[in-house]
Design goal:
The protein has 160 residues and is an alpha/beta fold. Helix content is 46%, strand content 21%. The protein starts with a helix and ends with a helix.
């Protein structure tokens, strides 16, 4: 009986120590401008994605692993392009189901032609896309990433 209480106590401790998943914060065009204008002291990995985009969803674990492995050296920002009307019904439940720990923003701006050039002039609007920023350097990729590719880009920036 004493062993059962110990196991229950251990499960309780482990369950309480895990971080709650993120909730998306709604941003507008000014929010994107602030993110794009920043010259961060740590590597920022900014990924544009949506819950309805299979390649986007497939690569999310790699971003989570990157954030977990690099801690304070890297800041992962996931910017959802889902409709703001789906914030509570789809986006936040998705984040909870997938235990997303990285910072999540939901862009509430209907005109892609206005925010795309702020991110990169070569972006054709397709997702997923990822932007790596460090100090005054940025690198834009219009592709899906795996963890090794993400890590390689981060390591390249950290060596500078």
């Amino acid at each position: 009986m004493k062993g059962i209480y110990s196991i229950i106590f251990l499960i309780f401790i482990v369950a309480c120590s895990s971080r709650a998943p993120q909730q998306a914060v709604v941003i507008d065009l000014n929010g994107i401008t602030q993110i794009m204008d920043a010259q961060p002291d740590k590597v920022q990995v900014i990924n544009f994605w949506a819950t309805w985009c299979k390649p986007c969803v497939d690569e999310l674990p790699a971003f989570e692993k990157l954030q977990s492995n690099y801690g304070d050296q890297v800041e992962v920002i996931l910017i959802s392009l889902d409709d703001v009307e789906n914030l509570e019904s789809k986006v936040n439940p998705f984040l909870a189901t997938h235990s997303i720990q990285s910072q999540v923003k939901l862009l509430d701006h209907p005109y892609a032609a206005e925010y795309i050039p702020l991110v990169d002039e070569h972006w054709d609007g397709a997702i997923p896309v990822t932007l790596f920023k460090y100090k005054n350097e940025s690198k834009f990729f219009n592709k899906e990433f795996d963890f090794n590719e993400l890590e390689q880009e981060v390591e390249t920036l950290l060596k500078k």
